[in-house]
Specification:
The chain is an all-alpha fold and 69 residues long. Helix content is 62%, strand content 0%. The two termini are 16 Å apart.
């Protein structure tokens, strides 16, 4: 398992909501947008994806995002 820097609850929630917006195809929440949001916290973002968004693991969107992080 990846060692993940500790985040405060509100910061983790912000990242989770951003990832959810990407997967749910909210307007303007494309791959470029989400990688911009998560670009500085790649290890943390990968851990959040793996732990909280397993249901998307077999989708192309998930694979593209993981490849960018």
């Amino acid at each position: 398992m990846l060692a993940v820097p500790a985040l405060d609850e509100s910061t983790e929630k912000r990242y989770r909501n951003a990832i959810r917006a990407y997967f749910e195809a909210e307007p303007d929440c494309d791959l470029e947008w989400i990688t911009g949001v998560l670009g500085s916290v790649k290890i943390t973002a990968r851990a959040i994806l793996a732990a909280r968004f397993k249901e998307y693991a077999f989708t192309e969107k998930y694979r593209r995002l993981m490849a960018r992080l």
